[in-house]
Design goal:
mainly alpha
């Protein structure tokens, strides 16, 4: 491939920006608000005073998918749950193995999480952040160790999924999920 052809590939395609109707925006907003609110409320009620948490930044990105792009293959339950669990496992393992070399542990966690999500058909882009948080997160995150896989990764994703199932199926013209497996 010539260099000019290589550079031309970076121009992309112009398909136009997809339009989203106001009703869709309202349901996406409501779902996102209720999903994150439920995580925070559940965290406060059940995990206050423990080292565990249900709230991590990668769930903000998951909410964009499961409420704002519900038809995306990356937003389906298998991807949401599997992607966060796999990424948390990989992230914690990379931190435990390579914590003395964070410049290596962080990219190793993200890259490996992507590869394993692809191999298991659970690709969920926020999972990359879940793996990264396990490595570069606070001492609080490092202290919970393998519990990070359960809370926040698994439990938080399940709570967001339950809210998505309830909210996304209220309007007649929305259906979630497209597939479970």
């Amino acid at each position: 491939m010539q260099f000019k052809q290589y550079l031309n590939k970076m121009r992309g395609y112009n398909y136009g920006i997809p339009k989203v109707n106001k009703t869709e925006i309202i349901w996406s907003w409501l779902g996102a608000f209720l999903g994150i609110s439920t995580l925070i409320w559940t965290n406060k009620i059940f995990l206050s005073g423990t080292d565990l948490t249900l709230v991590i930044g990668s769930f903000g990105a998951s909410v964009v998918l499961i409420y704002g792009a519900i038809q995306s293959p990356l937003a389906q339950p298998r991807n949401l749950i599997g992607g966060h669990i796999i990424s948390a496992l990989v992230g914690v393992a990379c931190y435990k193995l390579f914590y003395t070399v964070p410049w290596f542990a962080a990219p190793m966690a993200v890259a490996t999480a992507i590869a394993i999500m692809q191999l298991t058909y659970t690709l969920h882009p926020p999972g990359g952040a879940t793996a990264l948080i396990a490595v570069i997160g606070s001492e609080h995150i490092h202290r919970i160790g393998w519990w990070y896989v359960l809370a926040p990764a698994a439990m938080g994703a399940i709570i967001l999924l339950i809210v998505a199932l309830l909210v996304n199926n209220i309007p007649q013209d929305r259906q979630y999920p497209n597939t479970w497996l």
